[in-house]
Amino acid sequence: MTDVIVDIHHVSKSYRRGGQAVPVLRDITLAIPRGDFIALMGPSGSGKSTLLNLIAGIDKPDAGELRVGGEDITRFGEAELADWRARNVGFIFQFYNLMPVLDAFENVELPLLLTGLAKRERRVRVETALSLVGLADRMEHYPNELSGGQQQRVAIARALITDPTIIVADEPTGDLDRKSAEEVLALLRRLNSEMGKTIVMVSHDPHSVESARHVTHLEKGELIAG
Amino acid sequence: MLLKLVFKNIFRHRLRSLLTIAGLVIAILAFGILQTVVDAWFAGADMASAQRLITRNATSLVFPLPAYYRERIRAIDGVTKVAISNWFGGIYKDQSVGNFFAQFAIDDNYFDLYPEFRVKPEQMAAWKADRRGALVGRLLADQFGWKVGDVVPLKGAIYPGDWEFVVRGIYEPKDETTVTRQFYFHWDYLNEALKLKFPRRAEQAGVFIVGIADGSRAAELSQAIDREFRNSLAETLTETEKAFQLGFVAQMEAIVTAIRIVSFVVIVIIFAVVANTMAMTARERLSEYATLKALGFGPAFVAGLIVGESVMMTALGGALGILLTFPTAAAFKAMVGTLFPVFNVSRDTVTLQVACAVAVGLLAGLLPSIRASRVKIVEGLRYIG
User: Fold this and answer.
1) Averaged over A76-96, what is the pLDDT?
2) Judging by DSSP bridges, how do beta strands B161-173 and A37-41 pair with one another?
3) CB distance from B373 to chain A under 8 Å?
4) CA distance B6 to B139
5) Which of B86, B149, B194, B274 could share a disulfide with B202, CB 3.0–4.6 Å?
């Protein structure tokens, strides 16, 4: 039996706009196996980023059940959810979302500060992660001293550092040139194939989704079969 | 990491931070100087002794009392010493503020009532032996470069004429609360001259300084003295020296109150400036705070970043402002001459400055930190600062 890492049952979500509830996701049921690399595709407003946010635990559904790594995260309070995210989710954002006043080393180290690891152990892990993404020689560079592709690789290192259950990537190549985008996608493929990381990626770029093992389409808040 | 982020964020927008800190320096400095001015107004009252009463004309301080009251006051049980003190109000060189100082014509036993004025015995003896002799305070002597033996000419304003005095002694302070900017000479010298020139003004005292053995009997003895002269041509009003000094402050109460209010208004203004800076800063960094929350950092961490930055900024500005208060107060003191005989930045003032800086830091960061800590991650990540 396939080990399902993300188990979504009849999840719905709507947002309030000017006093009206606007449905964004309608009755989504989806199972993502452990070790999968799945791309969520769809036009703008299809709900793909919303679904990603729910899986990542940074938003809550209005209805339905959502289990990640066997835990029903819809039952968690804010503090529990924050703690859960720190241990289980690695984030890769479109615009990298690095702290501009911290260098590459310090940015990657950030999630480890919530783990209670000793300084020496943190150093080893950060150096390993930055080496993995090919930036061992850029540890003391600040984000404004790095290219877009390098910044995204720092973000990937940060996403990996706590060995999370899943990695969520929201348009990871959206702000990159073709070459940098290819480097980032290659890195993601490697994380998935060599390290067995489960990756859920949102993208509207058909070329990006070629790196994924599976592609799921959304349209107007519903999963499209096929 | 919290402290590291706070410290690194402070100078992220250098110009904005430096301007805010400069504003803080000026505000804390201004607050300190204004509070010191208020303190200086009360300095005379601080020097007051519980064992000294002041007896003056009940109608008004400008009216004198008969000099013979001295003996009747001295006869009251509980009174140890009585000395006359007349405000002379002469002009030294010119009427500029820098040349102004207090001058008093006093009885020979006046300094027995002021043990905080320390005079060398040989100087006191020399003063008592010279009817034109003057005893001057250390700070006053230093200000004008007077030495024992120097002649000091004064032009009379209240008592017309040219008056010359010889410095026979310089009195030193007992401690920092003791004012040493006064000029004292013999009441007898004044009185003898008045007998010749203005006889109707002779044998009159401005106030009596009354020494009492037991300070707890001040109210009782004050009433006893005033009862002695009730229904006479010159009724008296006797009060503690502190109350007498505070009476002068009360005349300027409106100004003192205004200065106090202005000093706190300055703090309110800088609070608004810092609050605006922090609000702008927090708004610009919403996506960073959302990212931190996404990574698992709690609302308290985010709030701590903002409040920490606010407090650190006010701490920097406040510390500089406090340091600059001292040389500024010294410069102010030099400018105003003897207008404020005591002009020291007190420990209470520094404590208030620290408290204001901390309060501004905490309060200015409060609302932005609450907003940022409550930001929904999804909305914050979408925010473009």
Assistant:
1) 92
2) unpaired
3) no
4) 48
5) B194
pLDDT higher than 80, residue B325: yes
Q: Which residue of chain A has the CA closest to B10? A: A101
CA nearest to B5 within chain A: A101
pLDDT band at residue B172 under the 50/70/90 scheme: very high
Is pLDDT above 60 for A226?
A: no
Token pair 């708004």 is found at: B283
pLDDT for res B177: 74
Cβ-defined contact of A82 to B5 (cutoff 8 Å)? no
pLDDT of residue B49: 83
pLDDT in tens, B195-243: 999 999 999 999 999 999 998 999 999 999 999 999 998 999 999 998 9
Instruction: Domain ranges for chain B, please list them.
Output: 2-43+253-382, 59-234
Average pLDDT value for chain A: 91
Q: Distance (Å) from the C-alpha of residue B43 to the closest C-alpha of chain A?
A: 50
* CA atoms within 13 A of residue B174's CA, in its CB half-sphere: 8
> Which residues of chain A lie closer than 8 angstroms to B287, CB-CB?
97
Task: List the structure tokens of B39.
Answer: 């303190």
CB contact under 8 A, A93 and B297: no
Main-chain phi, psi angles of A11, to 5 degrees: -85, 135
Nearest to A82 among B8, B288, B298 (CB): B298
Q: Does B384 contact A at CB distance below 8 Å?
A: no
Query: What is d(CA B14, CA A205) in angstroms, rounded to the nearest whole number?
Result: 39
Between chains, do A93 and B9 touch, taking CB under 8 Å as contact? no
The whole model's pTM is what? 0.75
**pLDDT value at residue B179:** 83
Q: Is the dihedral of CA B294, B299, B300, B306 positive or negative?
A: positive
Q: Dump the DSSP string for B320-357.
A: HHHHHHHHHHHHHHHHHTTSSS-----HHHHHHHHHHH
Q: Are B324 and B30 in contact (CB under 8 A)?
A: no
Helix/strand/coil for A97 = coil
* pLDDT for residue A209: 85
Say if residues A38 and A216 touch (Cβ distance below 8 Å). yes
Residue B277: Cβ-neighbour burial (10 angstroms; 0-12, 13-18, 19+): buried
Identity of residue A14:
S
Task: Tell me phi and psi for residue A140, to 5 degrees.
Answer: -100, 15
B5 and A87 within 8 Å at the Cβ level: the answer is no
Please write the tens of the pLDDT for every residue from B51-65: 999 999 999 988 999
Angle, CA of A173, A86 and A13, to the nearest 5°: 70
pLDDT at residue A175, as a whole number: 86
Cβ–Cβ below 8 Å for B295 and A87 = no
φ, ψ (nearest 5 deg) of residue B79: -90, 130
Please report, in angstroms and rounded to a whole number, the separation of the first and last CA atoms in chain B. 23
Axis-axis angle for helices B299-336, B347-373 (nearest 10): 150
Question: Cβ A97–B287 below 8 Å, yes or no?
Answer: yes
What are A31-80's pLDDT values in tens digits?
999 999 999 998 888 899 999 999 999 999 999 999 999 899 999 998 99
Are B295 and A85 an interchain contact pair (Cβ–Cβ within 8 Å)? Answer: yes
Confidence at residue B48, expressed as pLDDT on a 0 to 100 scale: 78
Count other C-beta atoms under 10 Å from residue B133's C-beta: 20
